[in-house]
Amino acid sequence: MKWIHSAQAPWLLSDRPDVFTLRCWAEPGAFVSMRAYYSDPYDYLPGTGKRLNWAAAKMTLLTVAGDCAVWTCEVPVPTRKLAYHFRAEDGAGRVLWLGREGVSDREGDFFRAGYHFGEDRLPSWSGKSVWYQIFPDRFFGGPATGDFVPTTKNVWGGTLDGIRQKIPYLRELGVTGVYLNPVFSSPSNHRYDTLDYTTVDARLGTNEDLIHLADELHRSGLRLMLDGVFNHASDRHPFFQDVKARGERSPYRDWFLIHDFKVLMTEPAEALTPERMKKAPPYECFAYAACMPKWNTELPAVQDYLIGAAEQWTRVLNLDAWRLDVPDEVSPAFLRAFRRRIRAIQPECLIIGEIWTDPTGWTQTGLFDGTMDYPLYGAVSRFLLKGDVDVYAFCDAMNRREGLMTRSMQRNQMLFMGNHDLPRCLTLAGGDAGRVRAAWALLCLMDGELNLYYGDERAMQGGEDPANRGVMQWDSQDAALEMERFTRETLALRARLLSSGTESIRFEALSAHTARVRLIRDHKEYVLFLTNGRDANFTAELPDARLLLRGERFALWETRL
Hints:
Blueprint: E1 3-4, E2 12-16, E3 19-26, E4 33-39, E5 55-58, E6 60-65, E7 68-76, E8 82-89, E9 95-99, E10 102-104, E11 111-113, E12 130-134, H1 160-165, H2 167-173, E13 177-180, E14 184-185, E15 196-200, H3 207-219, E16 223-228, H4 238-246, H5 261-266, H6 274-279, E17 285-286, E18 289-293, H7 300-317, E19 321-324, H8 332-345, E20 350-353, H9 360-363, E21 370-371, H10 374-386, H11 391-404, H12 407-411, E22 414-416, H13 425-428, H14 433-445, E23 449-453, H15 478-497, E24 504-509, E25 514-521, E26 524-531, E27 546-551, E28 554-560
Parallel strand pairs: 12-13, 12-23, 13-16, 16-19, 19-20, 20-21, 22-23
Antiparallel strand pairs: 1-3, 2-3, 3-7, 4-5, 4-8, 6-7, 8-9, 8-11, 9-10, 14-15, 17-18, 24-25, 25-26, 26-28, 27-28
Helix pairs in contact: 7-8, 10-11, 10-14, 14-15
């Protein structure tokens, strides 16, 4: 019999130090009831020979995903440490226990959770933001005429002041913040290869322009998120150039991960091709790109240099959020120091990590408030945008996500249909705007930090990088205006619906192409029908149901419980 628990995420979760969320995975239908018995590990009953003073918490069935039923409960932990085990009963009245040594028909050993020190609290404002992500060179302020085909090297000429001029547009659209791709000095158009972390790239403007933009956003009621690239730098960075010139005599020799100083100092940069960097790299870099050498983020001096720059910008801009690039390649010691030092300056600063996998190992260890939710993107894009998986795989993936995270964790995940690393959502959908609207309606209904990639609200298309980084289309074509109208409508609806948090959400397959999402929030049930086909029945079949929003591939209903 499958009955799984381990004293770690995602079975043991915590959003605050005095409450634990306990979860068990079991075969669907295996049990009719389940309880968690818990105690402080040293709270012994008098005269019992160290028998623990157990309390009981009833567990509920949270969700079913494929061959896994997820049972859950919350238990108070006033002393911040816990002993616990589980008791379950099947349909025939048989009682089983689950402890550290496995499943037994007798009460036995128990799991232990060590002292929970707790992490910084989550920002009070997070959980329902709508970020508007801008690739700064391509938004506004460049040439007014002429065709521009994006390449990996060309520059259009967008500016920070151009972004500032469009703040009224962003407010009218209904977003609540701006997320900027890198803006600091760099030789490239993407600026993920930094030359100077303290200076804005001159092609975008000046430090004063960034400060002016931040001030204007804040005066307009909008927040600002910056992209922190602390895994690697440009090979033209002066510290790396010093190592290249002086080798082991450089004071920065340990700031990078150098394997062969002789090759670094003598071999021309053009010889360090990706193939060469795969076979015998003279130094470590990002993605076999020799032009982006990797920082030694374990080194305290490197931490002070990089985090010091981030501290400076957090203070000067009164910054609301950081998104950290490829943090799974950055030292955990760096990430902990970054969080601690940034929060000391701005206690309400949100920190999001670019993690492409399960977030629990990153959010439950105090490294991030949330991560970019790529597993969610994968499920939504494959079912609704591309239509290359059936409804059963989609529902399993979405219900599995529900079983991995607490409500608080979900509220700090970044939800998106596109970004600078992905093909445009309309392109993935084969130009079918109905597919995009269905996916967007789902994301707008869910708790989280929603991210809208510039131009998606105006039906822009583009494939893999660099085609997905085109110039913002400000024209008035019908398709662009219709998608913008729909975006405004859904964001206004989201602002109303997310006035309170989600209590439960469940995804159900109705047919091979149609799913039903049932979400409960503030004494109301919202029923969202989604299809990647065209033959769906979108009737709610609920008493007093009211249609809120409808498209050719979705319908959203509301009813009071």
